[in-house]
Amino acid sequence: MSLAEFEEIKYDHSCERLDKPSRYLVRKARRDPDSGLQQLRKSMKSCTVYVGNLSFYTSEEQIYELFSKCGTIKKIIMGLDRFKFTPCGFCFILFDKMEEALNSIKYLSDTKLDDRHITIDLDPGFEEGRQFGRGKNGGQVSDEMKFEFDASRGGFYTPLENRIGTNANFGARRLKNVPVQQEEEYEDEQEQEEEEDAYIPGQ
Amino acid sequence: MILADYEEESGYREARPHFSKRQRLPPVVMLCKDMMPDIRTMGESAKAFPEDIKFLSEAIVHEFGNEEYFNNALLKTFRAVVLEQPHKQPGIALLTMVLNSAKPEIGKSVLNYFFDQVQALLNSSHDSEYETKSHDTGPWDKIKLILRFISILSPMVIPDDLIELYRRLLQFAIDINNSTEKRSPLSEAIYTNTLLNIPYLFYFNSDNRASLKTLVEDVLIFVENDYKIKDSDIELLKAYNKNSPYEPVHWVTAVLPNVKDALANEMQQLSSVFLNYDSLLTQQTTIHSFNEPLNLPTLEQILPFSGLDKGFGSVDSLWKTPRYSFEVYLPNSVGPFATVIPTTTYTGMLFQDILLDIIESMEFNRLEVARQLVTIDLFFAPGIFTEPGLPVAQLLEQFEENHSGTTFKIEDLAVGAILQLTFKLPTVSQSFAYFYSLLVEICKNSPKAIAPVFGRAFRFFYNNLDKLDFELKARFLDWFSIQMGNFNFSWKWNEWETDSVQWCRTTYNPRVIFIKNLIRKELRLTSNSADVEESVTDEFQKYMDPSFIKREDLIHYYSSLFKNFQLDEDDLRNNELYFRSPSFPFYESVINILDFFHKQPDTRSIAELENILKDVADVHGSIIEDFNRFTVTLLIQAIVFCGSRSLSHANKYIDDSREELKAILAQIEVSPEVKDQWICEAVIRYWNKNSQNGYLILDSLRYNGLVSSGAVLNFSLTEQYGVNMSLVDSTSIESIFRILNELAIATDKNVEPFEYVFNRLVGAANDVVSQLNTSDAIVVPDLDQEVQATDEELPLLDLAWKYESIMGFLKSILRKYSDEFSVLTEKTITNVSQGVTHEPTKQQLNRWILEAAEL
């Protein structure tokens, strides 16, 4: 499948645009040959954005206070722990217009909310069920893969015995090498691998 | 295992050559991918610049003309830099001319390409199908930028051809200007844009200079004689309601003298502004002319578009209303000198123009904008600005030692330019989030250098709050709170203590209102209120309580629902439904009501609810003052309580029970206005500690048809316990603007609510005037002049501030909704002449109403 329209090198601007699909989205689209391109096109035209790296304690009202500076907010859908029904650090924001959604990506990504740098990404549109964390413990996967203490995102996420294992494999260094199972549909994991995302003319 | 660990930590993998899984790019694409970024960043390093020119030109000479892909990429890159980063134009022009020396056809191609661009832009300027994007600055602004670029290319263009462009554009501006008695925005734009470019003809010293000089002199004489500048004093658009702290410079009036000054004295000013690239310029052996003359639109074609009010791009739209300078860093505020280059000089005006273009045309990448703005000095002659980040204290010291050194700060200029756009009246060109986050970004890059610059701006606006336009006060509040939210809420609160001590007993003092609203907004931006609490000094702890009305008034509100019943004040708690506290006589019935709302909508019937209410009426009716009012209050607060966990919970409960509530409300036999009033009260009193939530829930009730927009406006505009919340509480003010904005963009437009708000405010002004009992103009002392007031004088002073607030609000809505008010002109004038007896108020309002009709 060709994602040419998203990968073409363009010379229209003198610097990069901040409202392009993230590398995560492009890779996700590439892995899905049936509807990947449609999903990507849909994200560019949708009124919905995904907001990540929120503190668990950030309320809808705080999100409203900040994001309403970009446009009219129709709805905020908080991401919830699917077992506890408590906020687990992400949300979807539905704006009134597509431009407002793009504006929020251009203007607010990586600004601070509740003392955390929030991430904002395009989104093809909200569907029921996506408001729940997909980690094994109900929250976001990214929290299950972190090792450092993060007070505003539930401290240490995994219980100690889960982190070091029960079969006497002591030491965090070893654990680093245990392959972490990565599932395709995880919303929140950031892709690490570098890859040339470039358009080849005429192909 | 250990080895694997070692590998990861040493970064060994990164050092290994990276083989892409996919096919490698064709050589020409690879070349462009590497070369174009170099062109975009040319000049950012002064040291590398000569080499850049050398290597780039060699490569381009070699490659140009071989592949269409390369030619396109190069020309498009040139175009992007010329339009988005105008400070880099001289570099691009130099590169073009070096190419022209080596291979004249490249020079010709570049020139033709840009000339065609101008023609295309001219054609689009009167295209009713024109599609604009947020980074589009508008056809006329882009024509300005390309004309500037072509002007810098003067050593390789025939002088007569160049001057002909100027002559034609200026004649066009004159013709448009003469076609109307009124001010013509487009003609002002073309006139100013074109004149501002003239000095660029002399950027490089070449053989053409002498002939250009004579030709330019002729053009200036012709334009001075033929262009009539029209008066444009519109009070509605002024940033300050009275005693403006500075005299704004009218761009159209200032541009010609500025340009003439710049060209006078052998162009001395220019050599101290423009970076001298003459040594890098190669001999231009081939001089080009344009292939064909410029085809300007006819007057018939352009006049329908000459108002620049069709939203054809951000910078062009700035011209819709007369352009005046907006200043924040005033001369003599730090020491006996200016830190920003005055707009009354060519240099000052040019910097304003360039900064504005950068901010507007690259809005899609605020990080890059932030970087370019504070390093723009690299692209101009050294010595214009002080060293970057120099603290004002040191600047003052330097100045005292040496009066001849420069005092202009690049940071002041950059921040001032962003603020100019943030505080632009009547509308802003981008959404506020852009400007606020751009300011945050600039500060993030070099907090030490920028934070004090912001501090000076904060102080400036704060000191002038009593004069600042009503709407601008709200923008200032937003900016300040977002800035604080990004920087741990740290502010030198002790600076404002004396104001708080002196004026905390008043209701309408502009500074106290600001402080209160600022703290409330900060509290709304954080989930940890301790962050805010710890940031303020003891004096301000009293503002940490964000109550909408005072506690005694809240008690009074709940008491008024009952008779022969004493409520327990301790049961009135934050975010809690009073009626379900165990001491309340029929709290069990209330819990049944809550249970009812918690049920799935399809498993409940309205009869259950009616039975509960009937039981309550039968058994406890005797302690209830007005059962209708109580029913409305109870049901609404019950819904609000059910949804109190978050806004989406509230929305869900309101959505689920909409029909039931409507049915029960319909049974209550009182006028809809009264019912609506009860609903608004019930919601806002429940959320007394967080009125923003209250207002957002009222929005949801409005969308669900449970309360009218008019009712919410009425609620905000009605005095509550002696305070007009629409003048003091930012959540109230924002709600009013939110409702009016919605109505203004609605398809079935109804102007009644606008008239309603206007009349209510006029009524409030009348009340204040009658309390002040005067027929003279109401004069309030300037707050920065050490005002003192005795206890007897204080209430009068407070009333005077109230009057100013009301008038400020009126000015803002007349301006903001001028389209709506322009159809109401006659009606509002009649209302004012009949309803207002206070002559100065009447005159003021009449003037604004007439101005609004012209906007």
From TrEMBL, chain A:
Kindly list the places in or outside the cell where this protein is found, as annotated in its UniProt entry: Nucleus
Task: Return the Gene3D superfamilies for the record.
Answer: 3.30.70.330
Q: What is its main location?
A: nucleus
| One GO CC term, this protein | nuclear cap binding complex
GO terms in the biological process aspect are:
mRNA cis splicing, via spliceosome; mRNA transport; RNA catabolic process
**Residue span, RRM domain:** 47-125
Entries under InterPro entries matching the protein: NCBP2, NCBP2_RRM, Nucleotide-bd_a/b_plait_sf, RBD_domain_sf, RRM_dom
Q: List keywords of the entry alphabetically.
A: mRNA processing, mRNA splicing, mRNA transport, Nucleus, RNA-binding, Transport
> Which family is this protein grouped under?
Belongs to the RRM NCBP2 family.
- PANTHER family per UniProt: 20 KD NUCLEAR CAP BINDING PROTEIN, NUCLEAR CAP-BINDING PROTEIN SUBUNIT 2
Please report the name of this protein according to its UniProt entry. Answer: Nuclear cap-binding protein subunit 2
**Organism of origin:** Kluyveromyces dobzhanskii CBS 2104
TrEMBL record, chain B:
Record's SUPFAM superfamilies?
Answer: ARM repeat
Extract the InterPro entries matched here: ARM-type_fold, CBP80, MIF4G-like_typ-1, MIF4G-like_typ-2, MIF4G-like_typ-3
Which intervals hold domain MIF4G? 32-245
In the record, biological process GO terms are: 7-methylguanosine mRNA capping; mRNA export from nucleus; nuclear-transcribed mRNA catabolic process, nonsense-mediated decay; RNA splicing
One molecular function GO term is: RNA cap binding
Zinc among the record's keywords? no
Which Gene Ontology terms of cellular component type are present?
A: nuclear cap binding complex; nucleus
PANTHER family recorded for this chain?
CAP BINDING PROTEIN (PTHR12412), NUCLEAR CAP-BINDING PROTEIN SUBUNIT 1 (PTHR12412:SF2)
The identity of this protein, by name, is: Nuclear cap-binding protein complex subunit 1
Q: Which organism is it from?
A: Kluyveromyces dobzhanskii CBS 2104
